Amino acid sequence: MADFKRIVILTGAGISAESGIDTFRAAGGLWEQHRIDDVATPEGFARNPDLVLSFYDKRRAALASASPNPAHVALARLEREFAGELLLVTQNVDDLHERGGSFRVLHMHGELQSALCTSCEVRTRWHDTMRNRPPCPVCQARSLRPDIVWFGEMPYEMGRIYSALESCDLFVSIGTSGAVYPAAGFVQEARAAGAYTLDLNLEPSEGSRLFDESRLGPASLLVPAWVDDVLSCAEA
What we know:
Rossmann fold; three-stranded antiparallel β-sheet; single chain; 10 helices
């Protein structure tokens, strides 16, 4: 593998699936248990806030028993040892990258362990339930919602992401479905900028054909091996 200087990594549900985090699109996944419109849209929250708050309370509680897997740990090692520029963007709302040792993680779809106050718009680290309508720690209004980017809302820090894609020489997608935009379009942005593109996935995704290279297998095996390749090239 070539010696790259500027890397953008996008991770999706597939990297956390081996840690026991339910994915949305796989057979038996969360979307088969709940309608998207009911639990992942502003309209669903307005219609039935108890359902939405309970849904994310359960996911937050389940996250406490999950642990980072070798793929998360390997990316943290890359962050520590890579001498060039690295941006790790995740579509996941869990904190497994951070618990695996990463410090510079951009959560484009928000975080389970964060609450957003719809009254004062302040974000607060959050580990408890929300269904009982706790007050905002800042303004005391009982108007907290999960700090999650729902369908129809703009993902976080898109300007920073597109700027990195325009200047990277390697774009790597790990465990993504290739079905959710704008993230599904990142590979095309990177290719337009002249970057080499690599897809690491358990099985071919909807966007696999757009990549220069695709490697199939569990993230816990593929990612550590790829990180070894990158760091060995950098040392050569």
